[in-house]
Amino acid sequence: MRILLLIVVAALAVAAPYLVPEYYVEILVLFLINLLLASSYRLLTTTGDWSLSHVVLMGVGAYATALAAKLLGWPFWLGLPLAGVASAVIAAALVYPLLRTKGFGFFIASFAFGEFVRLIWVKFTNPFGGPRGMINIPTPELGSIDFFFATPYYYLTLVIVALCLWILYRIDRAALIGDVMKAIYMDEDLARSIGVKVNHYRAMAFITGGFFAGIAGALLAHRLGAIDPKNFDINVMVYLVIWVVVGGTKTFWGPFLGVIVMTIIFETSRPLLEWRPLLFGGILIFFLIFMPGGLESLLPKRWTSRGSSATEVTG
Amino acid sequence: MDFPTFLQTVANSVVLGSIYATVAVGLALAFGVMQMANFAHGELFMGGAYVVYVLYALGGVPFPLAVVAAFPIIALLGMLTERFIFRPTRGNVLAGFMATAGLALILQVLVGQTWGVGLMRSIPTPYMAIAEFGPVRLGWQRLIIIPAAFIMMGGLWLFLHKTKWGKGLRACAQDPEAAAINGIGNNKMASLSMLIAGGFAGVSGALMAPILAVTPYMGHGIIVTAFVVVIVGGMASIEGAVLAAFLLGFIHTFTTTLFDAVVSTMVGVAFMALVLVVKPTGLLGRVKQ
User: Does some domain include residue A9?
Assistant: First the structure.
């Protein structure tokens, strides 16, 4: 049953660019990037750390690959891993002071730290381009294949995102890592009492999540061709939180649901452009108060019961 | 920096510290009572500025009256936030915090759609005169913020220490269960704390309206600082928030004078990071269970 579902999804993913108009392929690329971003964010939330600097870590990756491409002439294939490593390094630098805080202190401190990094991009016009950001980020090439158009870039993104999601899935399922993280979320003191190095795992989740956010950032930068500090500000962060809250974080698939549903709502609300933040704010409040388990809590239990986890916004 | 510039910067710091204090005490008070943080606190500040815009700039109500009117109007908004967001999410800081982030989006859209997005609302300066103290020059518009802040702080102190309701608030912040056993309703106290938090944020925004660019998004600028102040001061500590507000006021003003506004925000955030690493409970914070 599961295998069948996987095959259908894979077939749809491969055929997608030929099933929808060109414009929607563009949206599908962003959708895949958002999927990776939301899934990497869920890794952090499994330990209870709802960081507010995750989108900034994505930005670190985007700026890293953009700088490498423009200043050093690095190709996308080197810039992509560089982006992940750069985000992981910045995540590591931020996480150790952050570990001294918990709960509310953690949200605020991570928000402020992210803002600090973002302000560096605003402040230093050389090399970051200041408030106007960086433009003319080259598109990837492979031999004679040019990934400029949406469809080839879609396949490139599909392969990279699928690989990253598979790794994230393995981490979630690994008894030694995934389960320990959830144990920390459920009862930190209890976890500590049986010898779990709580802070070690919180740091691991933060840094690993940062790495994949950086990958997502690199994919975004090379697709958009231009990035600026506003791409990674608190508004975008709130949208990421909305995806994850709407979908739920109890299972690996919760954030997927959230990104799918909110992408559809986002695209269909285009005529109401200036009212959209109100709609999204209302949805966020609705889910937090009336459906704290997210959409995944509506799914039949047997679909989600194999998920070994127990983390949601209620806690 | 020569001596007159130094004195001028000190005076500017006191003005800024005063406004930070009136904004941040509400956040600290509400956090102490409810263990809940309001992400839309900056939007309450913005709301206060729009009260002045509507009543004073559009409606012709005298400026001081418009500022006073901001208290009940925004206090009501604060109480509604408590009733419809913090009460249903009680006990879950994250849900309350995120839900108020949603509220911030809603308030921005409502204000923007009612009075226009884009260009800032122009508010004529009610007090044009400039006071001179030796080499220090301060516009009356800024000068009045200092006594206003002292009156508000003094009033809050008296309220918290001399009145039954104020003592109830402090009891609730110390131990909500013990307070409830003694007949102090937690919901009532939470509502009261948000009334004060909203009123103070509203009046602060109202006082600053002629000085700042009034836009639906002006809350963003103040919320980072307000949270830094509350963290540095020790989360639930009102005294800590006031102390941290003036510290931040000095740090921000001096770094803005010497460098620019972006550096100033960065230094403020870095200062908070330092406090978190050296003393995670903040300057005057006590360890909370």
Answer: no
Query: A281 — contact with chain B (CB < 8 Å)?
Result: yes
- Chain B residues with CB inside 8 Å of A108's CB? 37, 227, 230-231
- Residues in chain B closer than 8 A to A130 (CB atoms): none
d(CA A43, CA A172): 8
ipTM for the predicted complex: 0.90
Range of the domain at A212: 23-304
Q: Are the beta carbons of B94 and A115 separated by less than 8 Å?
A: no
Both tokens of A43, joined, read 């890794």
Give yes or no for A285 touching B (CB within 8 A). Answer: yes
Report the distance separating Cα A121 and Cα A131, nearest Å. Answer: 7
Contact indicator for B271, B66 with CB cutoff of 8 Å: no
CATH code of the domain covering residue A285:
1.10.3470
Look at chain A and report how many structural domains it folds into: 1
Q: Which residue in chain B has the smallest CA separation from A239?
A: B102
CA distance B190 to B78: 10
Could you say which of B35, B94, B269 has the minimum Cβ distance to residue A107? B94
Q: Chain A residues with CB inside 8 Å of B106's CB?
A: 277-278, 281-282, 285
Interchain CB distance below 8 Å, B31 and A101: no
Q: Which of A104, A112, A277 lies closest to B272 in CB terms?
A: A112
Q: Chain A window 166-225: which residues touch B at a Cβ cutoff of 8 Å?
A: none
CA distance B129 to B274: 40
Indicate whether A8 belongs to any domain: no
Give every CB contact of residue B136 below 8 A, 6+ residues apart in sequence. Answer: B4, B7, B8, B11
Per-residue model confidence as pLDDT tens for chain A (315 residues)? 788 988 999 999 999 899 888 889 999 999 999 999 999 999 998 888 899 999 999 999 999 999 999 999 999 999 999 999 999 999 999 998 888 887 777 888 898 889 999 999 999 998 999 999 999 999 898 888 888 888 999 999 999 999 999 999 999 888 677 777 777 877 788 888 877 888 888 999 999 999 999 999 999 999 999 999 999 998 899 999 999 999 998 889 999 999 999 999 999 998 888 899 999 999 999 999 999 889 998 887 665 554 444 444 443
Closest residue in A to B96 (Cα–Cα): A288
Instruction: Establish if A122 belongs to a structural domain.
Output: yes
Could you tell me the residue ranges of all domains in chain B? 15-217
| A5 domain-assigned | no
Backbone angles phi, psi at B10, to 5 degrees: -60, -45
Residues of A in contact with B224 (CB under 8 A): 111-112, 115
> With an 8 Å Cβ cutoff, is A245 touching chain B?
yes
Q: Tell me whether residue A301 is exposed, middle or buried, using C-beta atoms within 10 angstroms of its C-beta: 0 to 12, 13 to 18, 19 or more.
A: exposed
